[in-house]
């Protein structure tokens, strides 16, 4: 299919910046939106044609649904997220990680029933709405919230540790974990993925949709529950497999 439009929410993150470059380089997309609290610096897009890029700095506390829906986005990609340390508190973390994400997806959802939209969300390995851990519980609850919005197709990526991530803060524990998972990645594909590979997989999944995913991805399905429709999940190993399909 050609002539599609894509909206990316969260382009300044470790994975999002790679997703934006992939979207801009892909001829399948004739229009690409980048909505977020801030825009990715021009230097990050050096060498990429940005003529089809539409940028908008938004206030997630006061979303103007009209301007979001006017875009009639065919595929909505969400890579927005944070950490408790960055947010400053558990409450602030959940507001950004869950409330902002769900509200943005809702704002981008078309009111035209004939417009089939696909939603692709970067979640996390271990996402579980019943988890006792804040991070994985928030991701699980966010997935459930997104699944209740009525998109024609919803795909959630659940990767492991992200290799090659550019961070604006020092994370010693993450550095140590990255070293360990880097070693383990030589014997298993379930623990780590490079952000560039993950970005390619995310864009590809949006283009193919659940029905078009190759068998090598071994996509899972989260069951429908509590007002949320069933949706597709892609594990770390599945994301690696999909990145090799391009």
UniProtKB/TrEMBL annotation:
Annotated NAD(P)-binding domain residues: 10-130
Source species, domain of life: Eukaryota
TM annotation in the entry: none
Gene3D superfamilies noted in UniProt: NAD(P)-binding Rossmann-like Domain
Subcellular location per the Swiss-Prot or TrEMBL entry: Mitochondrion outer membrane
InterPro entries in alphabetical order: NAD(P)-bd_dom (IPR016040), NAD(P)-bd_dom_sf (IPR036291)
GO CC terms in record: mitochondrial outer membrane
Main location, first listed in the record: mitochondrion
UniProt protein name: Angiogenesis
Protein source organism: Rhizoctonia solani
């Amino acid at each position: 299919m050609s002539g599609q439009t894509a909206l990316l929410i969260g382009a300044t993150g470790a994975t999002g910046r790679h997703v934006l470059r992939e979207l801009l380089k892909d001829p399948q997309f004739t229009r690409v939106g980048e909505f977020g609290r801030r825009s990715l610096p021009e230097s990050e897009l050096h060498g990429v044609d940005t003529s089809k890029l539409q940028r908008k700095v938004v206030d997630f506390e006061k979303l103007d649904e009209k301007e979001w829906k006017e875009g009639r986005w065919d595929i909505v990609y969400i890579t927005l997220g944070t950490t408790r340390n960055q947010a400053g508190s558990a409450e602030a973390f959940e507001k950004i990680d869950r409330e902002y994400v769900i509200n943005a997806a809702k704002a981008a959802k078309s009111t035209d029933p004939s417009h089939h939209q696909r939603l692709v969300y970067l979640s996390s390995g271990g996402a579980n709405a019943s988890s006792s851990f804040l991070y994985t519980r928030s991701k699980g609850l966010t997935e459930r919230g997104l699944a209740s919005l009525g998109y024609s197709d919803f795909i959630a990526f659940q990767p492991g540790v992200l290799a090659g991530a550019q961070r604006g803060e020092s994370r010693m524990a993450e550095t140590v974990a990255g070293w360990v998972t880097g070693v383990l990645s030589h014997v298993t594909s379930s623990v780590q993925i490079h952000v560039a590979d993950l970005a390619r997989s995310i864009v590809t999944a949006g283009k193919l949709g659940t029905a078009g995913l190759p068998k090598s991805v071994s996509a899972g399905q989260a069951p429908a529950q509590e007002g949320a429709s069933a949706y597709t999940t892609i594990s770390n190993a599945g994301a690696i497999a999909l990145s090799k399909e391009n």
